[in-house]
Amino acid sequence: MVRLITHNLLACHAKNCTQTKGFPLAFNDVRVETKEAEFNADFLKSFYERKIDWDALVGAAKQLGDTSLPLERPEMVDDDFLQLLHHVLLEIHVEEGEMICPNCKHVYKIRDGIPNMLLAEHEIG
């Protein structure tokens, strides 16, 4: 499923794209659903401290209509913030649409919540 926790780790792998040029993928023409997920504060803290590209996360959330996260990465992590982070990372699901590379404009389709990240042979670099 395409959730923002997954999206924050995805980059374009087409020929001539690099993680810095092919990240973050932009959402286009999406259908979004909200689905409850089990809250795990320890997991969220760990992911927040080690894995998140904050600007990419905030931008992607805005593209999907969620403006609950602060623009600047908070240094203080409290329960209220973790609840917001949990909702954005784990409960927002992109069911249909596409993700587009900001560099080469390659389109990755999303169907039934699954992104097609496969490339044609001529697109592999």
From TrEMBL:
Matching Pfam families: Trm112p (PF03966)
BP GO terms, sorted: rRNA (guanine-N7)-methylation; tRNA methylation
Domain of life: Eukaryota
Molecular functions per Gene Ontology: protein heterodimerization activity
Classification via InterPro entries: Trm112, Trm112-like
Record-linked Gene3D superfamilies: 2.20.25.10
PANTHER family linked: MULTIFUNCTIONAL METHYLTRANSFERASE SUBUNIT TRM112-LIKE PROTEIN, UPF0315 PROTEIN-RELATED
Subunit text: Interacts with TRM9.
Assigned protein family: Belongs to the TRM112 family.
Listed name of the protein: Trm112p-domain-containing protein
Organism (species): Schizopora paradoxa
